[in-house]
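Friendly challenge for the regulars: who can give me the structure tokens for this chain first? No prize, just bragging rights.
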Amino acid sequence: MADEDRSRRIRQLILVVLLGMVFVGLLYAGARTSRMLEQERREAMLKAVEEREALKEVQKTSQLLQAYKKTLSRYEEHRVSFPADRVAVYAAVEQTLTGHGVEMDKITPKGDGSGRYSVQVRFTGPYYSVLGTLAEWRTMADLMLMQSLSLSWSGDGEVSCSAVLATQLVGGKD
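First reply, four minutes later:
Bragging rights claimed.
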């Protein structure tokens, strides 16, 4: 009986040790799972913050794109072109002068052979007609640069004007 009692105590001891090991194992697994869950929760929070920042960046980029498209559409409304040749330059200048009732005194070509073409225009007319002519030259469909301008007032209410207008010809030659 002593052997049986001893054998039972050994079995109980082994069972207690095994149960203790299982209990310790469960505690270790729980702690490890808890750490893993905490780490995943932190990563999820970081991902959420990154997602919000990325969304803000996308919204900002979208707003910038809309502003760019709006600005581009404004520029497309005001497309400019260059005159095809010298005849187109003369025609545009004379048409503007005639349209404002200004008398052209002289028009002198000043091409330099590089595709840039300039004309010096001398004309006389009433002050407001001269201003209207200058304003229309600034808004012509064909792009012209006013390189110089001189105005002189005469005693009879007329204004004499000399202007040099330059442009780039489409063909690239004078």
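The chain has three helices and four strands. The longest helix spans residues 2-77. Your move, everyone else.
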